[in-house]
TrEMBL record:
The keyword Metal-binding applies. It is an enzyme of class 3 (hydrolase). This is inorganic diphosphatase. Its cofactor is Mg(2+). It comes from Bradyrhizobium huanghuaihaiense. One of its GO terms (molecular function) is inorganic diphosphate phosphatase activity. Its EC number is 3.6.1.1. GO terms for biological process: phosphate-containing compound metabolic process. The keyword Hydrolase applies. GO terms for cellular component: cytoplasm. Keywords: Hydrolase, Magnesium, Metal-binding.
Length: 171
């Protein structure tokens, strides 16, 4: 299998590639293992919790936690692990996580697929209703609850900040 982490980050000046690891509706988190070239179970979620959208990573990036930069792909479809989508970044939630006394950044990029007719009007994540952003924060807290990770949300920012972060972390 192709090492999906080595694909380019950018399709063109406006769009990124996003690799789906965990599809919308999944009750467990999957991670791509580049050494084995497979998707492996990372962790089950708490009972009743499912991914609200496709979750994955931006290839050829490296975040502070050592993994590729996380991306939540906002669209109404459910795809599959390994699907590569062309997406437009619409924002970022800057996050600091603390585990075993160590703090590090673990930001989440939000993106919209270029072929998603229902979300083409979403240009900035901050245009989502505040309750929708609150729901996403609660989801991130819940997915980390069983790992004793403490999350601190540093703020929601638009597509310009997301693009700068992706460019800074691309290699």
């Amino acid at each position: 299998m192709t090492n999906l982490t080595k694909l380019p980050s950018w399709v063109d000046k406006d769009n990124i590639f996003a690799v789906v690891e965990t599809p919308r509706g999944s009750s467990c988190k999957l991670d791509f293992d580049p050494k084995l070239g497979v998707f492996a179970l990372a962790k089950p979620l708490m009972a009743g919790l499912t991914y609200p959208y496709d979750w994955g990573f931006i290839p050829s990036t490296k975040a502070e936690d050592g993994d590729p930069l996380d991306v939540l792909i906002l669209h109404d479809a459910q795809t599959y692990p390994g699907v590569v989508l062309r997406c437009r970044p619409v924002g970022i939630l800057e996050v600091e996580q603390k585990k075993k006394g160590k703090s590090e950044r673990n930001d989440r990029i939000f993106a919209v697929p270029d072929r998603s007719p229902l979300e083409t009007n979403l240009k900035d994540i901050r245009d989502l209703p505040s309750h929708a952003r609150d729901d996403l924060e609660q989801f991130f807290r819940a997915t980390n609850a069983l790992e004793n990770k403490e999350l601190k949300f540093l703020g929601w920012h638009g597509p310009n900040r997301a693009t700068k972060t992706i460019k800074r972390l691309a290699h």
